[in-house]
Design brief:
13 helices; elongated; 20% strand; alpha/beta; 5-stranded parallel sheet; 35% helix; 7-stranded parallel sheet
Length: 369
Amino acid sequence: MSIRVLIVDDSGFFRRRLTEILDSDPMIEVVETAVDGKDAVAKARSCRPDVITMDIEMPVMNGIDATREIMRQSPVPIIMFSSLTHDGAQATLDALEAGAVDFLPKRFDDISNDKAEARTILCGRVKAMVSPRSRIAPSVSPTRPIARSTGSLTQQQRQPIASTSATMAAPVSHSNKAFKPSDYEIVAIGTSTGGPVALQELLVQLPQNFPLPILLVQHMPAKFTEAFASRLNQQCKIEVREAKDGDLLTPGTALLAPGGKQMKMEKRAGRMMVRIVEETDPMQNYKPCVDVTFDTVNSAVGDKALGIILTGMGADGREGCTKLKNRGATIWAQDEATSTIYGMPAAVANIAEQILPLKEIGKKLATNT
């Protein structure tokens, strides 16, 4: 049975082009198109699509308001099409808060210069939205503002999405072991699809005096991360900012890996710092990459690290977490029920000491601090 798609865009050219691309996949059928947000809300009710692609800037009703209304009336996975600009990033994050699951660049050339590859990625994203391990409900209340953000597409977004069905989750951990900050030197968190909302949900629970530094790796384009970190900083009691090369890691501060680059950790003379580097490995699909950051965390502090994997497609973080686990570090994973896409958490579930609902992760970190 094919995946039924509703395309929403005020540009007739874009609707026709996207319809041509998606209909070229035998597993996908474009069943309807809409010319603005109000039209989208009505057609979402009438044709009951499996997935909606949504433009942001439209007359009558914009894509953010339409997304919020569709998620209220008849929830369905929504992929936003966004410009890779500062303003586009802020609007995209507003749309994710409203309930959208994922986003793609409005210009197909920003997805890939190769038309066949762009077609594969677009169709892959649509198919990933109806994976049995995807969840359409937003992680936080739409009335609660998500951290504000502002990229060409990252390498991760240029690759076809790996199927999440290949990695089956281990049974949910029933361990209730308390979090003791004195056992660790750093908390490292990796996430992808659904991550902007999940990170806010987690980080707003931490007190200003949180005693450990935090590293954040979120798959996100280059122009998005600075504004995303700034928006998180406005919402959280701890300090959150985009990492700069040479930044020292200090308690109560979370450093977000900049989009399009890699964030590595070093420890010299007892002082921990980050190095921000350009990716030189042509085989590396992610910029930034959870595995790259976690590997250097392992080299720097080993068993004194707490690694946490949140919602996301694919398996980035599995290798880094495995190395950390082999050194005696602690791994936590978000559970399937609260993950937007249970790919990355499922990939580390078999080595995670605890598998927790998203709200419990933040609550547990805030305990004894």
